[in-house]
C-alpha cells in the first residue's frame, strides 16, 4: 500500500514537473514573440521618370554612406534603434534590384507606428559623395547629351518611412522578409532649373564624351539651384 | 499466540551478515511465546523451527485448553483416554489425529514398520531427521507464500538488514561525480531578458561538470560530503540585437569548484517507506556552499 502510494506520489510529482516545464516553455515562446527578428533589406534607387518636358531622365548613380540609422517606434514592445557607422565609406549604387549586404538588418517584428531612417553621405577626399547620371535632350537642337551631377557635401538625410499605401504604420512579421527602398528624386531637384539653362549648359569632355557636368566648378548656376533640394523629396518605402 | 521481537543487534561483517540472515530462527520461551534468536546457522535454524512446530501440536496447549474448559473431573477422564491413545500411537507411529508422530519430544521412532527389527529402526530415523535438517527455509519464499501473514513476513525484515548493511559497510564513500546542469548567469543582460518588451532573449543552456566526491556517512540519515569538480562550467546563451543584427551570444565560464555539502536522506527510518525504496532511491536534500576559482572565461 505504502509502495503504491509512494509510486503514485512520485508519478504525480514527475507529471507536475513535466507540465511546468512545458508550460514554462510555452509561456517563454509567447513572451519572446516580440523579440523575433524580421529580415529587412534596404536598397537605394532614384526616380527614373522623365522631367523637363520629357527631355531629362536619370538612369543611375551612386553615393557613399558615412552612417546609417534606424529608429522605430513599436506598439507591442520596446522601440528599436541602431546606428551603423562606415568609417571607410559604404558605396552603394542606385538600383533597387541590387541587395546591399551592409544594409540588410534583423529588426524585431511588430507594428511600427513610425520608422525614421537617417543616413549621412561621406567619401574619400578625391571621390564624390553623391553622383547621379542620366541624359538630357536639347530642346532646341534635339541632341541628347549625358548629364552628371556631383555633390561633395556631407549631406544628412532624415526620412520617415511609409508603406506602399502611404501609411506611416508599418507591420513587420518575422515570417515575411521586408524590403525598403530609399528613393532619391533628381527630377524634383531639377524642377527649379529652366529648360533654357539646361539647353545652354556648358559641355565638358568626360571620357571623350561631351557631357553636361554639374558641380561646384562646372555649371555653377545650375548646381546652386539643385544642391538646395538634394536632401528633399527622398522617400523610404516598405513593400 | 506467536509473537516476535528482535533480541540482538546486527553483525559487523559480510560473512557474519549472511550467516545471521540464515540464522534468524524461532525459539520457544515459557508461555508458548515464540522468540527469534540468532542461531549458529541455517541447520540450527531448521532444527529449532521443526521443534517448534512439533511443540505447538503437543499436548501442552491441549492441556491448558481442556483444563479451563472441561473442568478437573472431565479432564481426568480425558487424560486417561489420552494415555490409552498415546500408547496406541507409540505402537503404530500415528497419533490420535492419524498424523505421523515425530520430533524431539517423542522418544518413539517415526514411520516405523511393524515388520522392522528394532536394530533397523534407528538408522531410518536418523536419515529422516537429516533430510528434515537439509530442507532450507527461504524467508522470502515464506513471505510470498504467507500471503500477507505478518508474522511470517516479519522473518524477512529486509529493511533492517539494509540499514545495518548501509551503516556498517558505507561509512566512507569515494567516487567520481558528474553533473549536467541548466546554468544561468544572472546579470543585467539576463534580467533584461525577463522583460517581455526587451530585445534580449535567453535560451536554456546546459553545462557538464566532472570531478570526484568523498562522502562520510554519519548515520543512515545524514552524511557529510565534499565534491571537487576539476572541470566545471557555467554557460548562458542570449539572443541579442546589435547594430541591426540578431546575434546568438554565449558566455562560458570554466572554473574549478569545491563544494561542501550536508546531506540528509529524508526517507531513512521512515516506516511508511518501503525498504527497497529506501535502500535504492536516496534523495539528497540541502543547500551547499562552494568555493570557486575561475580558470578562464570566454
Helix content of chain A: 10-25%
Shape label of chain B: elongated
Summarize the main sheet of chain B.
Answer: 7 strands, antiparallel
Order of helices and strands of chain B: HEEHHHHHHHEHEEEEHEE
- Termini distance of chain B? 75 Å
Helices and strands in order:
The complex is a heterodimer of chains A (239) and B (298).
Chain A: H1 2-31, E1 37-46, E2 56-74, E3 80-93, E4 104-108, E5 110-121, E6 130-137, E7 144-151, E8 156-163, E9 170-172, E10 178-184, H2 186-189, H3 195-199, E11 203-206, E12 209-214, H4 220-227, E13 235-238
Parallel strand pairs in A: 1-10, 7-12, 8-13
Antiparallel strand pairs in A: 1-4, 2-3, 2-5, 2-6, 5-8, 5-9, 6-7, 10-13, 11-12
Chain B: H1 14-22, E1 24-29, E2 33-38, H2 42-56, H3 59-70, H4 72-92, H5 118-134, H6 139-146, H7 150-153, H8 158-169, E3 172-182, H9 188-193, E4 201-203, E5 206-217, E6 222-242, E7 245-265, H10 275-280, E8 284-285, E9 288-297
Antiparallel strand pairs in B: 1-2, 3-5, 4-6, 5-6, 6-7, 7-8, 7-9
How would you characterize the overall build of this protein?
The complex is a heterodimer of chains A (239) and B (298). By secondary structure, chain A is of the alpha+beta class. Chain A has helices spanning 2-31, 186-189, 195-199, 220-227, and strands at 37-46, 56-74, 80-93, 104-108, 110-121, 130-137, 144-151, 156-163, 170-172, 178-184, 203-206, 209-214, 235-238. In chain A, strands 1, 2, 3, 4, 5, 6, 7, 8, 9, 10, 11, 12 and 13 form a 13-stranded mixed β-sheet that branches. In chain A, strand 2 (56-74) and strand 3 (80-93) form a beta hairpin. The relative contact order of chain A is 0.18. In chain B, the strands form 2 sheets. In chain B, strands 3, 4, 5, 6, 7, 8 and 9 form a 7-stranded antiparallel β-sheet that branches. The longest helix of chain B has 21 residues, at 72-92. Chain B starts with 13 loop residues before the first helix and ends with a strand. At the A-B interface, helix 1, strand 3 and strand 4 of A face strand 6 of B.
